[in-house]
Structures are given as structure tokens and as C-alpha cells.
Amino acid sequence: MNQARILLIDDEPLLLRTLTDELEEAGWRVTPCASGPQALRRLKEGLYDLVITDLKLDQINGLEILETARRLERQALVIILTAYGSLDSAVQALRLGAADYLLKPYEAADLQQRVQTCLEQRALRRRLELGSHRIPLCPKCGKIGEQVGLCSDVTWSPVATFLRRHAGAEVEPLLCPACGAESGCDRA
Fold it and tell me: Where are the beta strands (DSSP E) in the chain?
């Protein structure tokens, strides 16, 4: 099963349920949100590999969701899904950094392919980033520092969180042979 996490936002309950079911059947973990404010709370609480949002929402629109997601994580991937597509909104979404822009009604296979493509691009980008940068590591607590956005603020995260966020990897705790021997374990 694909462990990618998708935040899905649409204020039409039937469409939200349908989209959630289609994406979950394809193997992704989906967090559905029925409103913009709920989605913003979720964005601030957790890490998502991809955000799919309706353009027209009550209170907060999809472009505001896009801007917030990109502000929270510089390389956030967001797909705008809309029944009210226009050249202006498509250009604006792409200028703000949307990964894709899809018109409703959509074909489930097309949406799934676009999601898969976005997730593959994200994984590749993260692997390239990890391989080409020096990563600050605190020798005392073992946390990794990462720059937030374009400013010089640094956020310190546990190694497992960093690897999950930037490489899509889950960390399995396992003692190396030296530490295993040191702790009296026969097997590491």
C-alpha cells in the first residue's frame, strides 16, 4: 500500500466522499476536509505529501490554501480541482506554485495518474535535495536543522521526521551491531 498522505478539500459532501473513496481505493491515505478553515488547521497540524483542493470554497478559496501550503512547506504540492476553471485562475494557480490544475468533471484514472506523477516528482526532488546539501545535525540531541521558507529561520526535527518529510522514508528503529553488543543484545 502506498503510504502517501493526501489532504483533500472540497465543500461539496458527495464529491468529497467520492474523491476520498477513489483515492483510498488507489492506495493513498486521505484526510478529507469539508471547508477551507478546517483544511488550514490540518495543514498546520500535519505533514501531507499532496494537497488536492477545490478552487471555489466557502470562506477560504483554493488559491489561499495553495499559498498557505507553500508557505508552510516551500515544496508543497497542490493540485487545484475546479468546475469553474478559467485561463486567469489557471495562470494564477500556476504562478503561485500549483503542481497541476484539473477541471471537473474529471476522469478518476486521469486524477489518479496526476496524483501519481506529482508524488513521483516529489520523491525524486527530495532524494536529489538530500544528496546535494549539507544537513545540519546537532551532535548533542541528534536533531536535524532545516531552513523554513525563504527566511533564515531553522526548524529542528528528529531524524525520523526529517526523513519522512524529505525522502518519503519510514524509519525502523534498529540497533547497529556495536550498540547491540554494548547493550547486551545478541542481535541488533
Answer: 5-9, 29-33, 50-54, 78-82, 100-103, 144-147, 154-157
128: confidence class by pLDDT, cuts 50, 70, 90: low
- CA–CA gap between residue 159 and residue 145 (Å, rounded): 9
The answer to whether 156 touches 138, Cβ cutoff 8 Å, is yes
Please say if the pLDDT value at position 58 is more than 90.
Answer: no
Q: How far apart are the first and last CA of the chain?
A: 27
State which H helix or E strand residue 153 sits in: none
Omega prior to 158 cis, within 30 of 0: no
C-alpha 14/C-alpha 137 separation (Å) is 46
Give 63's contacts (C-beta < 8 A, 6+ positions apart). 55, 80, 89, 92, 93, 96
Closest CA to 19 of 64, 53, 66, 58: 53
Q: Which residues contact 162 (CB under 8 A, 6 or more apart)?
A: 135, 144, 146
Confidence of residue 79 (pLDDT cuts 50, 70, 90): very high
Question: What pLDDT score does 182 carry?
Answer: 76
Among the ranges 47-51, 113-117, 177-181, 184-188, which has the highest mean pLDDT value? 113-117
146 touches 162 (CB < 8 A): yes
Which domains are delineated in the chain? 5-131 (3.40.50.2300), 134-188 (no CATH)
